[in-house]
Structures
1.
Amino acid sequence: MPRSKTTHPSPSLLNLTTPVAMGYIPLGAVFGFLFIQAEGPWWLAIFASLWIYAGAAQYMMIPMLVAELSVGTIALATFIINLRHIFYGLSLLNTLPKKWWQRSYCMFALTDETYSVLTALPPEVRTQKMTLLAFLNQSWWVLGTLIGIILGAQAKLDIAGMDFVLAALFAVLAVEQWRANRDFTPIWIAIIAYLVAIFIMPSHALLLAIAISLFISILRPQTLQDTHA
Amino acid sequence: MNTQYLFITVVAMGLVTFVLRALPFMAGKFLRQHVFVKKLGDNLPLAIMCLLLLDALYGQSLNNSHNIWQELLAAVVVIVFQLRTRQPLLSILAGTVLYVLLRSIP
């Protein structure tokens, strides 16, 4: 699908990163804010945004750390939340930069937003802009985290239901996943799998539901449309 | 909270995330050859995100004396906002503010 080759010669880096900044600064701030409110050390919030750099997983870790769940449990949850990234790289396979440090950094920094900006670019431009774009995007996330830390340190709020942001972020990501393919079947698979799982094994409903969804996905006949090559 | 525990957990989460992001570049040939990988790629990301959402809503409802309608209503608001506006922050704020208000109702 040669969609972006028609009119614009090559969008500037600033044009590419600005929409991401508009999202990452406030969402990073929400993370920093909640982390400080949960009485986590400020430097660890910064470290998480530098080292993990995955919004949903970072939001999720806050209540899990407060509950002092085991490292293995939290690592497994991270695995589940970020499993989708395996399928992202496949469409960028031959367009990574050549230098090893650029390659490694680009792989590390391949978030949902960076991925969707990159896939909208023609392959030639993609390779050339990838490292700096990925770096700028992460800078917004870290900057947002810092702002959130400063705001969160001002006063302790105790509002029931504020932790709904995690569910809300999952809902946003689900909408964007749906938009990519406009296929409702995975939603039905998930709903059925979850209902079955909660009936059979309420204590491990999520894991069982994922296993069921995996199984149904493999059984499902190949879909006709092929969106991203 | 124990600093060592926090630090180790964050390090582990970073490693898991990096491995997932790097895997397609390491094993791309293998992954591309298999039809089941394509099928999983078409179905799983959205299915898992829906499952995470359902599980988060269900978990949230357990701390709430009302049954799950408040969580579902707030989630629907987030989804509608995101479909219409494509502004993650706006969608998240709208749903969360509504949820906080619903929770404040005795």
2.
Amino acid sequence: MLFDQSTGKQTKLTPLSQPGLYGCSQLQMPVLPGHRYRLLAVMPSKDTLQAYCQLPQQAARIDSIAFGERYKDTFSNRRRVTLSWKDVSEADKTCRYFIVSQYMFEDNLLVNAYFDQPVITQMGQRLYFINDVIDSKLPLTFYVMTAEPTLFTFYALAQQMRDISGSGASDFFGGYTGITPTYTNIQNGYGIFGGYLKTQRQLTFP
Amino acid sequence: MNRFTSLFLIALWALTAQASAQHIAIHCSVYSRKTDSPLAGASIEVNKHRATLTDEEGYAELLEITPGRIDLSVRYVGYLVYRIQFKATRDTSIAIPLIPFVQELAEVTVTAQQPQPISLAGQISFSQRALQMLPSIGGEHDVNRNLTLLPGVKLANEGHAGLYVRGGSSDQNLYSIQQVPIYKYSHFFGFLSPLNSDVIQQVDLYKSGFPARFGGRLSSVVDVTLRSPSLDQPKIEGSLGILSSRLLIEVPLIKNRLAIMLAARRSYFDIFTRFFQGSGTTDGPHYTFYDLNASINARLSKTTQLNLSAYRGQDRLDAGAFNKLENLQFDQRWLSNLAGGRLVSQFSARLSNILEANLSNYELSQLTNQQQQTITTKNHFSNVIKTLTLRNTVELITSPTHTLRMGGQAVRYWVEPGNLTFSGIGQSMNVSLDSTRLLEYTGFIEAELRGKYLQGNAGMRLSQYGFSDQTYGVVEPRLRVSHRIDSLSQIHFSYDRTNQVLQLMSNTGFGPPVELWFPPSQVVRPQSAHQLAVGYSQSIPLRFHSFLSFSVDGYWKTMKNILSYRDGFSAQDFTTFAQNNTRSWENLVTSGQGQAYGLEFQIQKKTGRLTGWVGYTLSWVRHKFADLNQGMPFFAQHDRRHDGTLSLVYQLSKRWQVSGNWLIQSGQPMTLPVAVYSSPQVNFVTGHFENYYPNLVIYSERNQYRMRATHRFDLSFQRKTTHRWGIGVLDLSIYNLYNRQNPYYYYLAMGNQLKAVSLFSFIPSLSYQFQLYLGNRSSNTL
């Protein structure tokens, strides 16, 4: 069961295509800024799973998107793109940000997600995301996901775990500097229950 | 004042109040009649059954002497034997001028039965001569490496800096050079000491029983005394090696008044790595270190001496990656600068005063420079700590067996945990994070007893420090007592209360060490500890007047407010302009408690052709943090259940010496994956689950497993040669003789196979030490 504790609304999650996965649509339970949600899973002869999440009060707004001159690397033409937006953290609640970009092909979607912290640079209240992207005539959309910190921490740790599992110790200079413990906010279980707010800006290179 | 404190004051009073009514003391000051300089290490014998050696100031005292006729003789290499007979009915001070003789003698070996002195609880001392007798590594008789061979002292895994004393962490050691604290006390990622062994006069390690004059750290004191430059003759000595070279020069500027010592050391690693650099797309990594020492010794009058000293040490690691599109450079430096002055005034035979002022700076800096096309971004981070100390100590010899020492100090700390500069994106920015100034006032008093059957030091240290408009006070009672049961055995006891204002955070991974010093705050409180230690030592007579010394010590230590990074955080979260860079460092760390206890055993042979020791430590170190490991206690990363060492030196002949170290210790605790699971991937744009990560892992409890045991054998051969120009020693040493692949870290390879990576395998090295004859040959130390 999923509860919106801010409105008292509740809905039952239904099985999805993969075995063991349950979900609901935003029509059944809209994700709204500042709302607090509760997840409850009751299983016969098992401990009850329970978790809470509190969404950020507002989504970050991309207020500047700039790109540089075209240059050529080994495989393709590229441009450097810089996004900037204002931090919307509250005094006692820190917001964290994911960046996702995608090109819209005719019938295909290419998505890049960036979770690592260093690619987002913060100077004062402003945050910057710099990336070199393929110079294409296709529309390029950038999404800034304003996430609650637990969700971000989970994905950052999951990224570290994948790094350890996959490439192990290849990054000597410190991408990974400590053993990553299991991180969860699920009572009696493992995983994460979190939410994020999405804003987007589209860009087309000349 | 609590009851515990009162008990210590009573003990302190009792130690000072005892009087010696039936015996007298003889105070001797031995100096060269030719140069007026004090003679350290001169042998003084009274009535043919009491003997002692002079200290570095040429001073010695013989206690518990029966009044009456005194038959006193003094011996020193290169000088005529001095004999005097006199009658003494009360405490007597005598100045003894020794006359040098010019005849050069053949080398002789002297074996004598020395009275077994009472050893002090928790304290181990090495003189420079003793250091030279210890096995060398790469031609260096390295202090830190040899300290780690002692029971109760451990080095972290290869590649990690720091000493770990009786369960304490690497920041809990007060490492001082001429009483000036040094914040980074190693070179080459902890492999070598911060200064070259030539400049060292003596090293005192206190594992417990800390005199009250020392404070500011929880677990140990390593007090390095530099040798005083000779006032009467110049000296040049040094070493040429394939890993590093060093040079020391002593020059009397005004004979018998003013002398200067300059010493320098530099490693060659970077030269080798640049020489063998290919034409690829990476540059390095290159590593180098150097250290410089300077010391000026001025005799202002017969009773006043001034010593000025300075030290600078730097480690640097740089690397780069470049291609047609990108040029990336990384440069990390650890820099220490020390300067100090020490004015010693001897007002009378019983009263002296030491006034000290010193500066100690430490800076860690990281520079990342990325150039891509015409766009350049720079990220510079620095962590800085500066301390200014002013200290005065008065020493009063109240009776032949009692000394009272009291003093006070004021310390000003400037701590800048982080200074970040970023330039790029058409703008630049500089941010100073949590910069703090802290003022600490300390007063201390020590009462020292040196009786025939009982020795002790009771003291009290009171400190007050203020920050953020608040003032805090700490009371630190200290006590150590050694009791001689009979002529061959003794027992020890000590209690220490210690506090530590400054906090060090080190990364625990395998990357280059990033040690960040932080000030205390409203959230992160100063660390504190209690330590109780008891010990028993026994001398076992052997043939030819030599002894075996056996000792066993037990300790129990509790620590409060120790720090650790929170799960998922590391130094990188503080050193870069990442998303959280405006957040306080306090959010990256969490504080907890520690508990350490263990037993230390040592059998040592100090005289004869074969010298050395066997040591073994059985110990436990547990930490407990509310925010880590779900609040359950876990073994600290430096916990080692078993730690054994064997250190031997054998004098093959007059010229040849062979030495070896073998050490073995339990593996380092570590956290490992215990289960594999699959997880779906979320498409953040659509909000749908898409792909599966099939091989994600769940980790064990923190530090639930251990790496495999570490052991290795180091071997060193030395051949001494004499020439017209001086003395030379050729040193061939081999680190890790049987090429043991000791684990540095583990990782999960393909197929969920656990693999270990090792750092230092078989490393041979060759060096040549030399000492030039520029004056009296008898003063050579090689």
3.
Amino acid sequence: MTQRIIEIIADTLGIEPAAIGPDASMDTMTNWDSVAHLNVIMSVEQEFHVRFDAEEIADARSVAGIEAALKRHGK
Amino acid sequence: MNARHYTLADQRAFAALSGDSNPVHVDPVAARRTIFGEPVVHGVHLLLTGLEYGLAGERTGLISLRARFQHSASLDGEVRFECIRDGAARTISVRRGDTSIGKFEAVTGSTRDSVNLPAAAVWAACREREFSGIAAGASGQLPLAMDRDLARRMFPSLSDALPAWQVALILATTRLVGMECPGLHSIFSALELRYATTPGENLEWRVERADDRFSAVRLALSCGDTLGSADTFFRPPPRRQASWEEARRAVSPGEFDGVRALVVGGSRGLGEVAVKLLAAGGATVCATWNQGEDDAARLRDALAAEGFAITITHCDATSGVAPELPWLPTHMLYFATPRIPGGRGQAFSAEAFESLSRCHVSGFAALTESLVARCGGNLRVLYPSTGILDDGSSGFAEYCAAKAAGETVAGDLERRLAGLRIMAPRLPRMSTDQTASLIAVATMDPLAVLPGLLREFAAS
């Protein structure tokens, strides 16, 4: 799951997946701004067939945060 | 590899061609109040520039087009275009520095039918819509139109490469998003078009999906038999600060009697709230503006309508020159700030630090010294510093460094200049244009912070 999340983030930000580590977050990545974040989350929802609430969207600001949110949805 | 620098003149020419004169692209004063903080290049301007390079020397048509606008591009840097040709496919990557700002994929083929294409003389005005208003299902149509001479001057290769109606359709999509729906507070995120051979005369659009969790709107597009979609976001409008009535309820009449306050940067944001609170409490107030004369005039006129007179005047805080006032101030509040960059994950920018320091350090010092000289001492100064210095939030290194230097300078000024007292509280993150974001960010209401702060300051 981690790798797929990284691939989605890489595709959205236009960078290579290898440039994104499992500890990557909005605080550590130049391109991961608020617009990119919404695109990332929408792609994650589409890929994993889940629907986050607004609080989850705001909190899932890292690879680990997105993974944790998906696990809360049983993924 | 091709490279372009975009200027404001380029932006305005593209606005004339496309009909998308959304202020975020062409009006630096209005754009500074958006989440971008400055004018940004139209995404479709980048797209057509990419196609200009990617289709140079060809005479063809588009079968399909897919564009993603990944990141905003301001006007102060070089934009690079890399085009890869693979049979009928063209992939164009757009970068600014290390940041990918766009990716465009086009498939070419022979669709060269023509259509009568009028050159629009007057474009419709920019609409300001509410998300709730269009989520219920808005729709409409825009006529395709294009000034072919202007198009040829701006995109000569593209004008030869593609049928005019195909270019006009792409132009109509930015007019739709930037001016019509979502309109004034829009972000164009992605465009997809599947061209048919038969051209249409209008771009028909309807809201296909709206998701309030993301403030996202997908528009379904059609033009004749050509179909497509546009993905957009609503961006937050300029932050409306506390109303006069709210400010009046937050202070007691007369509690600031005798205070003559110069509020530097008082036309919007925290400075605007301070002006209202001080005026409501009986202070004599002068609010300065640097770029936002209209904002300052609106504030002055709104207070005048309530029977409270303030003066407004221009002041470029980085100049260090205090404005001429009809009275000598007892208090100066320094709310001036340029755009605060939030460069997450980026290396420290000496350029950004110097820009911030011109306001928060050297400008502040020089302006304070000139005011003290004019007042003969006896000046109280509020220098709002930042709580980020304490909480260690990442991404604001240049701002924090400038504010820390400003605190040091404030201490030095106080020691050197007799009669000067400076308060430099580290304030929490409050709701202003500078803290606006598409995703929820914890901020405090300025009215929960500033009344108490101003009381303490006035009594200092």
4.
Amino acid sequence: MKPSANFVVSVLIAGAVALLSACNTQSSMRPSGMPSPTSSTGSSGSAGIPGPTPMPGSTSSSGSGRQSSTGQTPRSSSGTASRSGAASSPGEQGSGANSGRKSGTTSESGTANKSGTADREGAAGSEARGEGESDTAGKSDDEILAEALAALSAGKAKGQGTESEGEKDGEKTGAGTDGKGDGQQDGDQGTANASRAGDRSGNGTDSNSGNQNAADGRLTAGLAEFDDMIRDKREEATAQANTEGAGPRRSSGGAEDEDGLQTAMLDRDPPPAPDGSEQGAGGTDMAKAGPAAVTPEFEVPADVGNGQDDDIIAKQLREAAMKEKDPELQAKLWEEYRKYKKDMQART
Amino acid sequence: MRSNHFQFLLTACLGLLLAGCNTTQVRTTEHTGIIQESTPIAEHLLLDVGIGIFNPGVDPDADPEKTGVFPKIRAAEARFMPYILMETLQQSGNWGMVRVIPDRQSEMDVWVDAEILVSDGATLELGVTVQDSSGRTWFTKKYQEEASKYAFDPSIPNHGEPFQGLYNRIANDLLAYHQTLPEAEIVAIRTITGLQFARRFAPEVFTGHLTADEKGRLYIARTPAPNDPVLQRVEQIRERDYMFVDTLQEYYESFVRQMDVPYLEWRKAFYEESEALREARAQRNARLIGGAVAILGGILAQGSNSPVVNTAGQVGIFGGAAAIYSGLHKREEVKFHVESLEQISDSLQGEMEPHTMALEDKTVTLSGSVNEQYRQWREILREMYESETGLTTN
């Protein structure tokens, strides 16, 4: 074959891969609020469709999926671009594969089908592929072209119809569990993962992942429902207390400090909610949820800041100071607050 | 013989003296302050404390006239007192979360249970048992305190809880025990609590993480990885459990606010009546016994040949009779005080009963809803476990 023909073929491959990458880049533009499934690594096109039987090897892949974190999506358009860029130059395909490995891009899923091999073994195949051009060099240009076109069509199909799966793949594997760096491994495995994905969809590991997703969804819904129920109950309790006009409590006088101040409730800071918001758990008062929950009708000294970085004790001191009607006591509470904040800053 | 008659006469005189005595009780109460750790306890060593509803220490159907205890008031006190102890522990700053939790509906590091042995406004006596989540009993102890008369003196503002010293002593004993625990033990207690909670929701996964010895004390067999996905889900649920427990606190707080003033008034009235009753009883007994002794001495003195002794004996007889008569009057007074106590107690019972029932209703309703939700979550976690492992559980 003439060098020019080789060049044309290379350009075609590069073009194909670039197109493929572009497809996947688009596919990664999922709304960020969309829930990320936590199922197996490569459910190509059918994550939500339960398959009839579990697949060997699904445990490890679903294991990595379980560990995934939505905040660690390794996929990025830059990663995809680097891959396509690498592919554009045959001489750098090896490094291109490598960069894909690093970023764990979803484009692997797109290219994956071309290997068409079975799951586990696919990893080894992908390693071979990642190592350089040996596979490519051993094939005729026609074969390479055919593969490239197949990959292109597969990539398009994935990009258009099943992008979410590609994304799921990336997310899950990208989470890098078990210290193995699955996200990177996926990048490494390239075709293997994709073939795994293809096989999964056919063989039904998604049955597990689908069940998991459904159960997770139910759990999340239940948690939200519970939050609503508790909120209602609290509002009801507050309203009832107000209606009944129960007076303020006398102080129990448990801990009188020198200034006669009643120490604020020193509860432990509740663990933050999964979404990072404070749900008010762990505190008796809903207003403990944070500075945002504090009503702004109280006067706040200028030097105490907005309380955004307060821990729970500081919040309680701040809240107590804001609610205090006696100016003298209020000044003491603010002084306590300042002192506490200063101590905490000194410690950190 | 003569000396005998003198002895009888002396007895009659003593009897009269006894009958004439007025008992005055001088009560000194020593107030115990609460001890706060001089250095703040590191957060990972703060233990959460759960306080159960106290055992009222009386049969709910018991007759107050026989027992002297008013069951409905005790029922209200059994919910009021844990809240005061909770406030005391919170204010000490030595603990993490401190909550009143009925029926151990949540998992806490330390549990405080108590029985009300005596509570009459003047005296409070509690039998307290403290355990940690591993099942180790920290201590079992009786606490008793008598209220100072100044505790109810309206001229002294903001006197607070009349038996605060008793609650402070409980808190101090808790702290003292806590201070004896090595750091590793404290961490272990916290871990056990977390595993108990996890086990409640995902027993398939977490049962093997705890082992129990023959006495039922729990030990950690192994710990789950911090990033264990099941554990993470369980932690999400635990946050909700905290919310549930906090909602209960609002119910209890509201109840305590409703109960606070009438209960204090009752205790004040009860204290005064109890004191009057105690005094009346003492006087009654002294007069009846002294009168009887004087009469007996007077009668025996009549056998003397000495006219002086005879006369003195007659005086003793009359004096004794007068003392007995007076003692009988005191009996009426005692009865009057008892009736007063019943009246003021009935009044408080009538006032508190709807609040207690409302509190129970709300607590039971909320617990019912929460438990149903928990059941569903347990089921979901079980499904997840089965789906992941392919194992089937019962």
